[in-house]
Amino acid sequence: MTDTTADDALPPLVGPVEVVGTGLIGTSIALVCRRLGIDVVLRDTSAKHVRTATGLGAGRVATGVDRPQLVVVAVPPAAIAETVVEALQRTDAVVTDVGSVKSAPLAAVARQVSSADLARYVGSHPMAGSERSGPLAASAALFDGRPWAITPHAGAGAAAVGLVESLVVECGAAPLRMDPAEHDRAVARISHLPHLAAVLVAGRLAAAPAEHLALSGQGVRDVTRVAASDPALWQQILEANSDAVLDLLGEVRADLDALMAAVSAAPSGHGGPDLVDILARGNAGTAAIPGKHGGPARPTRSVFVSVPDHPGELARLFGDAGEIGVNIEDVHIDHDPGRPVGLTELVVEKGRAEHLLAALESRGWTTHR
Ligand SMILES: NC(=O)c1ccc[n+]([C@@H]2O[C@H](COP(=O)([O-])OP(=O)(O)OC[C@H]3O[C@@H](n4cnc5c(N)ncnc54)[C@H](O)[C@@H]3O)[C@@H](O)[C@H]2O)c1
Ligand SMILES: O=C(O)C(=O)C[C@]1(C(=O)O)C=C[C@@H](O)C=C1
Predict the structure, then answer these.
(1) What is the pLDDT of residue 271?
(2) Which residues form the ACT domain (predicted)?
(3) Pocket of ligand 1 contains residue 241 by CB under 6 Å
(4) 71 forms bridges with which residues in the sheet?
(5) Of 300, 303, 301, 298, nearest to 345 (Cα)?
């Protein structure tokens, strides 16, 4: 894997950019391009999605005479290869796709186009998204600071690779060049297995007694968020990467057996050494996840603030944090049923938390230490 990039050496993205698939990812990319003043043309098998995306200001409906500089294919995984082939044959543009799996679509495209056309195709994959689908979930800020894999094949043209990297940089993401097969093994571990773990945990909730669910706190929400994603999309992702996913599931099956043995061996339910080793391995895994901006994760601390449930109060809290000079790394908002306040958790750099607490209190905010 290579961290790129010398921005000034990249070919400029001037457009038009054609986006095929105006869902969450396609419309988000289109919004970024429009913000840069680039002409964006939109295509989708769903006329409703194109209408919604144009209504959001993401671009205009494609015509028969557009000459795109770049085509971005943002359709579901099973439709990627045929859509990339169609774009390579219909235009003379550079073509990228944003699909979650890279090797299988590349192999299918390579079987169907000439090597000259294949040189204009460069796969990519933004590591940003949501459990929501469709254009209404889109945001121009979706890719800010996120990794975005670029997975050129051996015959890809240098200018085509550079143009795709320009798109990634313009979207505010961090480009990482990777071999397609290595990419697929990586996402099996850092995206597909976590998704399946969330699904298994959330599946245990589906028919749970109401009095169990009434106790739900942040832990279960943190672990299950992505399980709310579109099952049809994820079926296609997992089928396209089944070998790498199955290898990991086999390892997890062995881990589960070890975990069950450790729990049952624990003296009077208090956890013996094996159990604590397994739990500590989880600590090591979470510590290994790089921080939002790459490199090791910076230690953070949560600052809890009560926010009155009135229009403008959250904006005032964020404005105050900005004036105090503390960067908010993440935010969670919990509503207290029956009370006109929300509990807002601001995740900030650990060393800045005390300063933020004191400064917010001096401005009249109710904090929880
Ligand atoms: N959802 C995520 O978090 C995420 C993140 C990174 C990459 N991806 C990848 O991006 C791609 C799009 O995912 P999404 O979340 O935006 O899905 P989405 O369902 O929000 O959007 C997909 C869009 O493609 C359209 N479409 C379907 N078949 C088409 C076809 N043959 N031609 C033209 N349009 C077609 C649909 O109508 C829809 O508007 C997928 O390949 C997915 O693997 C998703
Ligand atoms: O944040 C989320 O909701 C996601 O699931 C995003 C996520 C991921 O696993 O990180 C999911 C699938 C995509 O291929 C890329 C990104």
Answers:
(1) 53
(2) 302-369
(3) no
(4) 18, 95
(5) 303
Among the atoms of ligand 2, which is closest to the Cα of residue 225?
3
What's the pLDDT score for residue 342? 82
DSSP, collapsed to helix, strand or coil, labels residue 240 as helix
Give the three-class secondary structure for 1: coil
Return the CATH number of the domain spanning residue range 185-263: 1.10.3660.10
343 alpha carbon to ligand 1 midpoint, in Å?
34
- CB burial readout 51-73, b (16+ within 10 A) else e: ebbbebebbeebeeebebbbbbb
Query: What are the residue ranges spanned by the domains of the chain?
Result: 2-178, 185-263, 300-368
CATH topology of domain 300-368: Alpha-Beta Plaits (3.30.70)
135 Cα nearest atom in ligand 1:
20
Q: Kindly report the CA angle at 303 between 327 and 312, in degrees rounded to 5? A: 70
Report which protein residue has its CA nearest ligand 1's atom 27: 75
- Give ipTM to 2 decimals: 0.98
Ligand 1 centre distance from Cα of residue 220 (Å): 27
What does the block give as tokens for 351?
Answer: 């060393």
According to CATH, the topology of domain 2-178 is: Rossmann fold (3.40.50)
Residue 287 buriedness (CB in 10 A; 0-12 / 13-18 / 19+): exposed
Q: How far is the C-alpha of 93 from the C-alpha of 109, rounded, in Å?
A: 15
As given in the structure block, the two tokens for residue 26 are 């396609």
Global pTM exceeds 0.90:
no
Q: Are strands 147-151 and 174-177 parallel, antiparallel or unpaired?
A: parallel
pLDDT at 301 over 60: yes
Distance separating alpha carbons of residues 332 and 343, to the nearest angstrom: 8
- With a 6 Å cutoff on the Cβ, whether 151 touches ligand 2 is no
Q: Which of 58-62, 127-131, 145-149, 295-299 has the lowest mean pLDDT?
A: 295-299
CB neighbours of residue 310 within 10 Å: 10
The ligand whose atoms approach the alpha carbon of 194 most closely is 2
Query: Is any ligand 2 atom within 6 A of the Cβ of residue 26?
Result: no
Q: Kindly give the number of the ligand 1 atom that is closest to the alpha carbon of 77.
A: 41
